[in-house]
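User: I'm preparing a small set of examples for a lab meeting where we compare how different chains pack in three dimensions. I only have the primary sequence for this one, and I'd like the structure in token form so I can line it up with the others. Please keep the answer compact; I'll paste it straight into my notes.
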Amino acid sequence: MLHEIAEATRRLFDLLDEGQRAAAVRDVTDDDLRRSWAYTPGPRPGLVLGDLDRAQRKAVHGLLACVLSPHAYAQAAAVMALEDVLDDREAGRRDRHQGDYWTVLLGEPGSDEPWGWRVEGHHLSVSVVVADGRVSATPFFLGANPARVTYRGRTVAQPLRLEEELARELLDRMGRTARGLAVVSDRPPPDLYTGNSPHVGDIEPQGVTPAQLDRASRGLLVGLVRYYLDRLHSDLADEEFDQLDLERLHFAWQGSASRGAGHYYRVQGPDLLIEYDNTANDANHAHSVWRRRSGDFGDDLLAAHRAAVRHE
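Assistant: Understood. Below is the structure token output for the 312-residue chain.
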């Protein structure tokens, strides 16, 4: 897996001219840049997709496709394409386009030094850091506006459908007592609690725990977590899943349980945070993120690498 990621990154690097490399390549040790991320519209450091030629654009997509699972890559591509749909709905007022996604390369593969990259724009942020044979890929954000496109009440497109449906199935299947614990507020927050903060910070675990769920509901909770981790290639997802303490999860829901109304949920563990909200635009504007408290932006991998180098 690591070889494929390195090859995809090298492929893009080799397609860039000198000026493009100067704009795209930054130092992975630039902590401020590495941790500076956003899911709102607007320019970012690096190269914007719309200015690249066809081969270069395909190479950027190759970065995503080698790290993401097939279904998550399809979600990411759909999220990017929705920019033109949203632009049409807004009559072009904000001049959105699916080419408005930026790539920054953090160092360069091919040595013993850490390296990585980020692909980011409105409603998409994928940060990858590689160090000492290990891969970090959080924060991993996907959003959608519109969250759901319909024809006569029937769904035509909904990139984050399972992010909503799997959580609803869990909420619907758990017993009344457990549901009373899980629903912690009748009003959802206006957005993700962590936003685009560089650190997860201290968020009090709320809601229901596996010990308070029946066996079937516990399986649904684990399945929801696994779905988020399975945004990554199976090898990477398996490694992430094996590190979780599943008995210490919390699932919390805020807002209405009725379809079409604003809602929010999160799943927390000792080093895990999953957040999802769909509140804006009459609950037709969804955000979702998977984060790791100690490992976002490869912080844990880089710290271990630096410690090993000092020790040597």
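A couple of notes for your slides: The longest strand covers residues 124-131. The first helix runs from residue 2 to 15.

User: Perfect, thanks.
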